[in-house]
Amino acid sequence: MSYKILEEYTQEYTEEIKDSYLSILHSVGENPERAGIVKTPERAAKAMQFLTQGYEMNPKEILLSAMFPEEYDDMVIVKDIELYSLCEHHMLPFFGKAHIAYIPNGHIVGLSKLPRIVDVFARRLQVQERLTHDILECINTTLEPKGVAVVIEAHHMCMMMRGVQKQNSATTTSGFRGEFQKSETRNEFLRLIGK
Ligand SMILES: Nc1nc2c(ncn2[C@@H]2O[C@H](COP(=O)(O)OP(=O)(O)OP(=O)(O)O)[C@@H](O)[C@H]2O)c(=O)[nH]1
Ligand SMILES: [Zn+2]
């Protein structure tokens, strides 16, 4: 299946990324021949392929693979979906939770597919704002629900480990389409996710 978690790595990419990490090890003053890190360029190359596997995946296909006709037309919420992504500015992690809601319009979607598409978009170089809209638009244009809402709360390592070095700040982004543009519906969603 196109959305299977990456278990096999492309030899060509592994070799290419490995060479780049070898060069980074040299540049930071490490000895790449040292026993402890002799395999590090290869490990890091595989880790980087894992963390960016979203480029190879088709999120619309994932949703389309499990859409079922159903008359339920109240709110469906999947909250507290953990996510790990890489900021496109520093290639350092940002991590947190996504909360997704939609109001079906003749079709429901397999619940697991929502966290799956979060992972597809998170496993690319991202900014939190675009990640939020990517998820929102994917659901809106594929499922064509009566409404969709996405809230992401995240911590950015580039603001913690370096730069401004703030340990307790969190960033919240949100997007609302359709029925969620009405304050009553939006407030019900925010109340149900505990905001
Ligand atoms: N809007 C947005 N900004 C982000 C995100 N992730 C990281 N950034 C910011 O991207 C900005 C890049 O700013 P620059 O001034 O070019 O980079 P920098 O000199 O490393 O900035 P500092 O982090 O302030 O040291 C920083 O302000 C980061 O905090 C994100 O998801 N969304
Ligand atoms: Zn950053």
Automatic annotation (TrEMBL):
Q: Which InterPro entries match?
A: GTP-CH-I_C/QueF (IPR043133), GTP-CH-I_N (IPR043134), GTP_CycHdrlase_I (IPR001474), GTP_CycHdrlase_I_CS (IPR018234), GTP_CycHdrlase_I_dom (IPR020602)
Query: Where, in this chain's numbering, is Zn(2+) bound?
Result: 87, 90, 158
What reaction does this catalyse?
GTP + H2O = 7,8-dihydroneopterin 3'-triphosphate + formate + H(+)
Keyword Protein biosynthesis on entry: no
* Source domain of life: Bacteria
Q: Main EC class of this protein?
A: hydrolase
Question: What is the annotated quaternary arrangement, including any partners?
Answer: Homopolymer.
Q: Which family does the similarity line name?
A: Belongs to the GTP cyclohydrolase I family.
What is the name of this protein? Answer: GTP cyclohydrolase 1
State the organism's lineage: Bacteria, Pseudomonadati, Bacteroidota, Flavobacteriia, Flavobacteriales
